[in-house]
Design a protein that fits this description.
By secondary structure, this protein is mostly helical. The protein has helices spanning 2-13, 16-35, 40-49, 58-67, 74-78, 84-96, 101-108, 119-130, 139-147, 151-168, 176-185. Bound molecules: fe (ii) ion (2 copies).
Length: 190
């Protein structure tokens, strides 16, 4: 029942294109969860709902986050779009009645990752970044690693892509949380 409501909720909040991305994220997340021993239903639910706040204007995201008492990091003040995961988690809890903390955390952390995150969160992060409709350079490499059972290497590559892409995009910033998460996983060779 919640799946049907979540589906309708996401459809109402999003453009067709982004809704399709959300469905694809949910499906791909379901498959990854099955493969890597996480509850696929929870990955699916988080996938469908992860971007419900993505099309809110930056100013609304900022105000909404302030209203919810979210302590804003410097990056989030500079670039409120980074808040769309945290705001989505709040909306989904208050308006859809989703109480599963793991699902809410996965929605909240899909944008930049989170230190000490769970496997469910990592799966939703990866599903968002490399679901099959994503065609940027590097997405194929991550999908192939996932197919081969190389979860950690896939996650590292995906975080590397995110950091590189952010650094190369004018008018954008690199979120330090992603860098922290990347460094937690990266093996130093020195
Ligand atoms: Fe997103
Ligand atoms: Fe997304």
């Amino acid at each position: 029942m919640i799946y049907k409501r979540a589906f309708e909720f996401a459809r109402a909040m999003l453009s067709t294109e982004r809704f399709e991305h959300s469905v694809s994220t949910a499906r791909y997340g379901y498959r990854l969860a099955e493969q890597y021993g996480v509850d696929p239903e929870r990955a699916y639910l988080a996938g469908i709902l992860h971007d419900v706040a993505r099309e809110m204007p930056a100013r609304s995201l900022y105000l909404q986050a302030r209203k919810q008492g979210i302590i804003l990091r410097r990056e989030e003040t500079t670039c409120p779009l980074l808040l769309h995961g945290k705001v989505a988690a709040y909306i989904v809890e208050s308006e859809l009645g989703v109480r599963d903390k793991g699902v809410l955390n996965a929605i909240a952390s899909h944008v930049v990752g989170r230190r000490h995150w769970t496997k469910l969160e990592q799966i939703v992060y990866l599903a968002d970044k490399v679901e099959p409709t994503r065609v940027y350079p590097g997405a194929d490499v991550v999908r192939k690693l996932l197919e081969e059972g190389e979860f950690e290497r896939a996650l590292l590559e995906s975080l590397r892509n995110a950091i590189t892409y952010a650094a190369q995009s004018r008018g954008w910033i690199v979120d330090t949380e992603t860098v922290v998460v990347f460094n937690e996983i990266a093996k130093t060779e020195a």
